[in-house]
Amino acid sequence: MSMPSPPSSIPADAAVSAPAASVADAPGLTRLGAARLDMIDTLRGLVIALMVLDHVRDFFHRQALQFSPTDLDQTTPALFATRWVTHLCAPSFVFLAGVSIYLQGVGGKSRAELSRFTLSRGAWLVLLELTVVGFGFQFLWPFVFLQVIWAIGFSMIAMSALLWLPRQAVLALGVLIVAGHGFLGGFDARSLGAWAPLWTVLMRPGPLPGIESFVAYPALPWTGVMLIGYGLGPMFLLEAERRRRAIAALALALLATFAILRGVVAFGDPRPWRRMTDPLFDAMSFVNVSKYPPSLQYVLATLGVSLLLMLALERLRGPLRPVLLAYGRTPLFTYLLHIYLAHGLAVAIGVAGGIPASAFPGIIGNGQRLLEAGWGMGLPAVFGMWLLVLAILYPLSGWFAGVKRRRRDRWLSYL
Fold it and tell me: What pTM did the predictor assign?
């Protein structure tokens, strides 16, 4: 079947191969186009499952309330690995969001339509973070907790303007932001006076004055990751074998650059590698990169691993594949559900075990109250709760994926 040429409003470099489209436009895809989307959605499904693990650990794990699992002076290898693997989530989400914006343009949206949609969806995500998501994590109101949904929303708002630039310029700007923002690490935001909170929102994690809040994901570094995803969009339009080779080459280049920067140059992360007491902890220190904000080394390592996983998952068959696709085709829906499900289960199980319900609201930054009440599980039990949450989510995500496949209502593209 022949495919239409890319619309004239898309840059000429978009016409690399047959157009792909967003999941919302899936009915018109060829088998090759659908395979591209499945490759993206399967990786997205995997990182959603890992993200659920991270948040279940936050709500259920006893040690999560006591210290950071990446604190090499207190952690264990199992706990460190459980946390490190979830580092893949945010950069994969943001990068794939950039890729998806590019593919939507090639799939039929004019640049003006794509800009309007990206702007409105970005604003919607920011609103959700400030309301539904923040309350789900805290069960308190008001509390401003700016995490990955906020970062994606802000990045989409920026992308709605930047996509009018040539793709190569967007890619170059993304690389400049990701590689260069670390140079500003020593800047004293207090010198900005009344504008200092803007530095927190854009560049450095921390609370905002005058309101119960915490900015976990400063927006600018994550915007750089989305711009890189958009700029590399044509790679996902290549013929299958060329696409695999290109993705593999990029992944290996990212990991090799990480290894050189980490082990030789000592550049790109505020937390340098240090020798530990044994080889295993040496290796843990080597990959113990900084997420808040995402350092250059963090982005190189996590995106390199994620792209290799994408190649492996492309060949995945069996019962796990439809599970990951269900999550990956309904990312926002599944994200919102899992917060309330995991937090609600923690409260229900805690109350059933004699923990007062009043100990659970405001869990972020107030873990000591839950510890004193006797709350918390060991890591094996946390994994059990993770599988329970995933099992409950699967039929719900699968149902909503079916709704999106059968219907073309505009509001579905916002969920």
Answer: 0.89
